[in-house]
Amino acid sequence: MRILVCIKQVPEFEHMDIKEGPDGMVGLDLFTDFKMNRFDEFAVETAIQIKENPPGNQTDTEVHVLTVGPMRAVDVLKRGIGMGAHHGIHLQTQTQEDLSPFDIATWIAAYAKDRDYHLILTGSMSEDDMNGQVGPMVAGRMDLPCATQVILSRVHAEGGSVYVEREIEGGHREMIEISIPAVLAIQTGANRPRYPSLSNLLRAGKQRFETIEAKTLAAPLAKELREGFVIPQKTRAGRHLAGSPEEKAEQLIGLLQDKAFI
Predict the structure, then answer these.
(1) Does residue 36 contact residue 76 with C-beta atoms inside 8 Å?
(2) Is 162 exposed, middle or buried (0-12, 13-18, 19+ CB in 10 A)?
């Protein structure tokens, strides 16, 4: 069984002070710290667990990790290898700017089309854009069945289908079975992603990743034009209610009456 896990490098927002550039825009070139998208770690862990507990007699499971991005994006491949993947693929772009889900999905589909992957896994979304579109778009470009928000997956012993439970509204789960090859977008909470092991990290440091210029693959059609990022401006101030609970309740009722809400 061959599994491809799509992972993304995202800015480390928690440790950074986001500032505007001279033009008032926020550009990715202003960020210096990056990491693997947290949602994608669950997809990598799912693939590694399938490798460690292969269905039926399929003992030779191979896990590849793939990322799309500039040269710095190879760092997330090293983390994927550190978690237990066998091989890393870098679809290298020349721009530092964030790419649209359609661009990313087009390149991933073009790479994976003739490489006989049984499963293609992604995270449910990315921490930066939160579009949640790359997995379904890859499936659409490759004409493959797809399940999103996957909280549990189990490949049948025969290897021809995968049983999936996906999160839906109201805390419920939808149980489906889809044929393989397929695309699964893994939800957070599906497992507990492991820390990279030292031996695997040492292996990742020596391994040569497969690098392909994204522009040499199928050219995506222009679907959107991003003008830039700006920091939202504060347009209104909050009001703090002081006093006892009774006094606060009276103040709140007065405010609601002034706004004609009650």
Answers:
(1) yes
(2) buried
φ, ψ of residue 169 to 5 degrees: the values are: -60, 150
Could you identify the residue written with the tokens 């590694």? 48
Instruction: Establish if 250 belongs to a structural domain.
Output: no
Q: Which helix (H) or strand (E) holds 103?
A: helix 101-112
Rg of the chain on CA atoms, in Å: 22
Whether 246 is in a domain gets the answer no
Q: Write out the DSSP string of 212-253.
A: EEGGGSPPPPP--------PPPP--------S-HHHHHHHHH
CB 78 within 8 A of CB 204: yes
Tokens of 85: 């993947």
> Among 53-57, 85-89, 125-129, 247-251, which stretch is predicted with the lowest mean pLDDT?
53-57
Report which secondary-structure segment, H or E, holds 49.
helix 38-52
What token pair was written down for 71? 């040269």
pTM of the model: 0.80
Taking a C-beta distance cutoff of 8 angstroms, is the pair 108, 100 a contact? no
Please give the residue range of the domain that contains residue 92. 2-216
The total number of structural domains that make up the chain: 1
Report pLDDT for 235.
77
Does 242 reside within a domain? Answer: no
In a domain, 206, yes or no: yes
Which amino acid belongs to residue 197?
S
Q: What is the CATH number of the domain that holds 211?
A: 3.40.50.620
